[in-house]
Amino acid sequence: MAKTLFYFIVFPGFLFTALIGLLVSWIDRKVTARVQWRVGPPLLQPFYDFVKLLGKETIAPQAGAKLTFLFSPIFGLAAVTIVSTMLWLVMISPEKTFLGDLIVVIYLLTIPSISIIIGGFASGNPLASLGASREMKMVLAYELPFILAIFTPVIKAQGIIRLGDLLQYQWANSIFLNSWSGFIAFVVAIICMQAKLALVPFDIPEAETEIVAGPYIEYSGAPLALHKLTRWMMLFVVPIFLVVMFMGGILFSGWHILWGILKYVLLLLIIILIRNTNPRLRIDQAIKFFWGPMTILAVIGVILAFLGI
Amino acid sequence: MDLKTKALTKSIWVFHFAAASCNNCDIEILDALTPKFDLERFGILLVGSIRHADVILATGAISHKAAVRLKRLYEQAPQPCLVVAVGSCACSMCIFRDSYNMAGPFDGLVPVHAYIPGCPPKPEAIIMGVVKLVKALKKG
């Protein structure tokens, strides 16, 4: 019991994911600043942002649903914590996997988006509702190719669906990235990950114009701090999920740890560079993009996986 | 200095409110937020929603319509929220002080914590004003 609490709260659960999430969001801001030829914030900046937000007054709008408004960030935070715990425990000891944990991870990774949607609709603000409805459309758009891409490794491994067994399959044979179907699915998954993390060119729900903040518009103080922390933790957790599915996770023996961290850093750099070099799409362009070219590409990946390539 | 104030001085999110200004001060505020002056290294970010704001950067001699909205905005901002008056019109109404449609300088309507005079103040002056505000916050 105490061990389970330790796993969920300290390592690899909430504290570990939150601290690395702060570090990763700083890396994002620093690399963005360097790309724009400026200096960028100091290392502890996300920590200062978080503490400052905790010290601000929390205001719940009168026209909104107060309890839902105040408690919606907690669902997203809890879901991200559980996913991070599951992924790291599976990487450390793959025999701790259980049947269906891949499906649980996919399901839990949609909950942060749902908490944004709930919070946006509970704000009683028309701009927040608009942002929340765009978030709903984005979830409908990118979940289809994302799930197709995530199931390509399952098909390629002839139906192994436990995360731990998938990891061991990749350690025994080559990583899924080395095959054509895996590579196509990886590209699709990266683009869907960009949408899942609500980063440019798909940050349509939040930064609709730069004037208002979409579903976050009425949030202040501690709930806003939790929303931001959830976003930073997602920036850490979703690429780790992709590393587990396509690149064989992080092997905890000797030099392989460094190699695993480099895999994650590579994904992070791809995300940041896509973020800095693209304009934002309109919502209809984004939906057409995900249901058109991305789904076709994902289906090609699935067909190639069935053929064993 | 307790952790709350220290975090507030290290991470200042500004909200830009232009109350019937001629927009020169607004252009200078925009310039201060560009990569050339890079205010993000001090933790200063521009936010769109008043609920996320720590500092209201207020420009312009306020018209009567803007005064109504200013009072509503100030109440919507979560405390502690500071007001910085940027430009001579915001500090003292300058040449518009006898004008019939202006509702008075900012300190007649909301408490102002820093004044940055100039018409318009250069971005360096705006940064210096923010630094002085941070130093005053650190003192208490």
Write structural notes for this entry.
The complex is a heterodimer of chains A (309) and B (140). Chain A is 70% helix and 0% strand. Chain A has 309 residues and is mostly helical. In chain A, helix 5 (101-121) packs antiparallel against helix 6 and helix 6 runs antiparallel to helix 8. The longest helix of chain A is centred in the middle third of the chain and has 31 residues, at 126-156. With 140 residues, chain B is α/β, with parallel strands linked by helices. In chain B, 37% of the residues lie in helices and 15% in strands. A 5-stranded parallel sheet of chain B has the order 2-1-3-4-5. In chain B, strand 1, helix 2 and strand 2 (45-46) form a beta-alpha-beta unit. The longest helix of chain B has 17 residues, at 123-139. The model of chain B has no long low-confidence stretch (mean pLDDT 89). The chains are: A mainly alpha (309), B alpha/beta (140). The A-B interface holds A 29, 33, 36-42, 44-45, 48-49, 51-52, 55-59, 209-213, 216-221, 224 and B 3-4, 6-8, 10-11, 35-36, 38, 40-41, 43, 46-49, 51-52, 54, 76, 78-80.
Topology:
The complex is a heterodimer of chains A (309) and B (140).
Chain A: H1 2-9, H2 14-35, H3 45-54, H4 66-92, H5 101-121, H6 126-156, H7 163-172, H8 180-196, H9 222-246, H10 256-276, H11 283-306
Chain B: H1 3-10, E1 13-18, H2 24-32, E2 45-46, E3 55-59, H3 64-76, E4 82-86, H4 88-92, E5 114-116, H5 123-139
Parallel strand pairs in B: 1-2, 1-3, 3-4, 4-5
Helix pairs in contact in B: 1-5, 2-5
